[in-house]
Amino acid sequence: MTRLPFLFAASSALAILAGAASARDTVTVALQLEPPHLDPTSAAAGAIDQVLYSNVFEGLTRFMGDGSVVPGLAESWEISEDGLTYTFRLQDGVTFHDGTTMDAEDVKFSLDRARAEDSTNAQKALFADIASVDVVDPLTVQITLSQPNGNLLFNLAWGDAVIVAPESIDTIKTTPVGTGAFTFTNWVQGDRIDLARNPNYWGDTPALSAATFKFISDPTAAFAAMMAEDVDAFSGFPAPENLPQFEADPRFQVLVGSTEGETILSINNKQAPFDNPKVRAAVAHAIDRQAIIDGAMFGYGTPIGTHFAPHNPAYVDLTGTSAHDPEKARALLAEAGLADGFTTTLHLPPPSYARRGGEIIAAQLAEVGITAEIINVEWAQWLETVFRGKNFGLSIVSHTEPMDIGIYARPDYYFQYDNAAFQDLMAELTGTTDPDARTKMLQQAQEIIANDYVNGFLFQLASLSVAKADLQGLWANAPTQATDLTAVSWAK
Amino acid sequence: MTRSLFLGGILSALVLLAALLSFIWTPYDHTALNIPAKLQAPNAEHWLGTDHFGRDILSMIMVGARTSIAVALVAVGIGMGLGVPLGLAAAAKRGSWLDEGIMRANDLVFAFPSLVIAILITAILGAGAINAIIAIGIFNIPVFARVTRGAALSLWQREFILAARVAGKGSARISAEHILPNVANLLIVQGTIQFSLGILAEAGLSYVGLGAQPPVPSWGRMLADAQTMVSLAPHMALVPGCAIILTVLGLNLMGDGLRDWLDPKLQGGRA
Q1: Which residues of A touch B228 (CB under 8 A)?
Q2: How far B243 CA lies from chain A's nearest CA (Å)?
Q3: How far is CA A413 from CA A392, A410, A417, A418, in A?
């Protein structure tokens, strides 16, 4: 008992120390994937945007956490009557991190670079309708379209359309120079990327003075790092099974939101027997979505019946089109002349939704007589064999780009769906600016691919993040791949 | 019979029995998913609990024992089948270019850590049980070649070999008829040890995803699956972990016991 006063003194000293430390203005955020390089305008890797979007690089418009598109570097814009000319008024007094001024010339340079013939931009389709980008005066840019495109403002918000400094292009992959609230300071490859507050930022000064992104790919290490409080937040936590433990722990908060990731069982539409719609329908009816969500994602995820995000106002719930019905699946297989079933391959990339989901799907397909031979692959192999080589029967992947139903209009896309009616509809959609007409067309498009059973539509990937309880302002949803730190702060 | 042979024999027999029994009976279908029943701790219905897909772990362990034993057995078979003749040949032609060639090639394989070679081979040939067998088998070859050559060399100095020579037998015949039976004891002991190492190697390869592919159950992959669930369902890691430990322990004890039992030099000294 004599020790008690000492202990008490020690703990109050600790409390004082903790109090002093609470005036925190730095944050360490962990991510699972490390970017291959740091130029968001020349690679498909979402990991680049995950670090840099809105923190270091900004576009004319930008996404907010709820998915809405708001002005970014463009302060305002006017759209001509015919929908062909967009005149953007730029924010005044914006400088790049290297001190140079951001003006209309830089906007023209960035957009022309992205849509150029030899551009390596991963989303060139975003700029396909732009006929020309013209500088009116240093703060005014005019974009002329070859045909009306109702998506332009949305397209310009993508990480692939950010404004870059012409002087920095040669070194952008290692030292990115943008206009954002944070400047890039250091990249220790294999470990972390450091950012610091940009003192000359044109917008609201961020609450954080510095931020570190740490890369932890192993789910077990992710759990340990979070539990040991080595990191303040983990954006895109890889092990959903551990989330209840964080929820039960008062030190942490769990952010569950939606992403743009439609997780699908992709089917090679050109490979026999999947070229027969009856076989694809059989596969779709063999799948029990809820079992996959519960088994692979521990309940996190929303079932989808088509390639469209459920949080989008134009979403149609078509899960009934491909309801779990093994009897019907067997009957469909018999109709297709495959009463004895068949054997195919199931290529699974590393994420747990694919590896675990794949085991479940293989078991569900086995119930109706389809033998799916599981082949676990790394991402590089997946891109090589499945995505580029189109040498697969089935695969599981989450398509995380926002509003990407347009990929079904590309017959050379890896699942090789070729439907002229759908392609015409998509072309018509691009030329339509009337919101109601667009919604109708999008709904029609969702129904076409659902009724054609192009792929097995599984679930919308949930955005799962863990953070310390007093960290505020992180995005719960992931309307695009980003970890926006501009509004993040510690509770007082 | 020594105590370690007895204990090791019982443990090994148990694993073998479980594997054999799994061909005719398991408590549940080891591939049947039952997601609502996932992550159950051991209970009356599922004696060793269920995994993250609600599969019965006891059934998976039983069928997994089959995978482990089959992979290790064939791998040791490859090692013995190729290593022993090589060792005999090297000993018969001691000091010749053949001996040098065989033994230096062995050194080359030995120079690499065995699991690293196995990973290399499965990375080239692709993951799967068959390739795991080949990979583990290859690094078993030099082990058996060395043991055989070492023991055979001392035998070649003995009078009964000289007698066989005088009788006109060639070195191939002498190796097969006189040397091999006399090194058999050693090979059985070494085989038991290599068998346990083979089980460990198979578990290791499966753990990193290069062994048996799902849905074929494997102890190593069961451990890997359990990794993020240790705090939720510790039995998922403990059960396959214990299965591996007990099997390897059993085989090692049996190997030790066999050596003591078969080695004439130790006879009478113990018992």
Answers
A1: 219-220, 223, 239, 241-242
A2: 22
A3: 13, 5, 7, 9
In chain B, the percentage of residues whose pLDDT exceeds 90 is 42
Q: How far apart are CA A234 and CA A28, in angstroms?
A: 9
- How do residues B48-58 score in pLDDT, each as one tens digit? 999 989 899 99
Tokens for A91, please give them.
């924010």
Q: Which residues are CB-neighbours of A99 under 8 A, at least 6 positions away?
A: none
**A363 and B209: CB-CB below 8 Å?**
no
Chain B contact for A371 (CB, 8 A cutoff) = no
3-class SS of residue B157: coil
> Which residue carries 């069982």 as its tokens?
A265
Q: Which of A234, A237, A242 has the highest number of chain B CBs within 10 A, making it the mutation to test binding with B?
A: A242
For position B185, what pLDDT does the model report?
87
Cβ <8 Å between A219 and B227: yes
What are the residues facing A212 on neighbouring strands? A28, A194
Query: Considering only residues 98 to 127 of chain B, which have any Cβ-Cβ distance to chain A shorter than 8 Å?
Result: 127
Q: Is it true that the peptide bond before A277 is cis, omega within 30 degrees of 0?
A: no
> Residue A385 CB: number of other CB atoms within 10 A?
18
Pairing relation of β-strands A489-490 and A471-472?
Answer: antiparallel
Are B228 and A223 an interchain contact pair (Cβ–Cβ within 8 Å)? yes
Tell me whether residues A363 and B32 touch, CB distance under 8 A. yes
- Token pair 């499965």 is found at B122
DSSP A207: S
Q: How close, in Å, is residue A344 to chain B by CA atoms?
A: 15
Contact B33 A245 (CB under 8 A): no
CA–CA gap between residue A481 and residue A236 (Å, rounded): 10
Q: Which amino acid is residue B170, in one-letter code?
A: G
Contact A219 B213 (CB under 8 A): no
Q: Which residue has the tokens 């699908």?
A: A264
Per-residue pLDDT of chain A (492 residues; tens, 9 = 90+): 344 444 444 444 444 444 444 468 999 999 998 998 999 988 777 889 999 999 999 999 999 888 889 999 999 999 998 889 999 999 999 999 999 999 999 999 999 999 988 888 888 888 988 999 999 999 999 999 998 888 889 999 999 999 999 989 999 999 999 999 999 999 999 999 999 999 999 999 999 999 999 999 888 899 999 999 999 999 989 889 899 899 999 999 999 998 888 999 999 999 989 999 999 999 999 999 999 999 999 999 999 999 999 988 889 999 999 999 999 999 999 999 998 989 999 999 988 899 999 999 999 999 999 999 999 888 888 988 999 899 999 999 999 888 889 899 999 899 999 999 999 999 888 878 788 898 999 999 999 999 999 999 999 999 999 999 999 999 988 888 889 999 999 987
In this prediction, residue A18 carries a pLDDT of: 44
Give the minimum alpha-carbon distance from A294 to chain B in angstroms, rounded to a whole number. Answer: 7
Per-residue H/E/C for A258-276: EEEEEEEEEECCCCCCCCC
Contact B36 A294 (CB under 8 A): yes
Cβ within 8 Å of residue A3, ≥6 positions away:
none
Backbone phi and psi for residue B16, each to the nearest 5 degrees, phi listed first: -60, -40
Q: Which residues does chain A have within 8 Å of residue B209's beta carbon, measured at their own beta carbons?
A: 376
Chain B nearest C-alpha distance from A295 (Å): 6
Q: Which B residues in the span 145-204 are in contact with A, Cβ-Cβ below 8 Å?
A: none
Strand runs labelled E in A287-412: 302-303, 342-348, 370-376, 394-399
Task: Answer whether B38 touches A (CB < 8 Å).
Answer: yes
**How does residue B34 score in pLDDT terms, banded at 50, 70 and 90?**
confident
Taking the CA atoms of residue A106, residue A111, residue A112 and residue A115 in that order, the dihedral angle to the nearest 10 degrees is 160
With CB atoms and an 8 Å threshold, state whether A359 touches B36: no
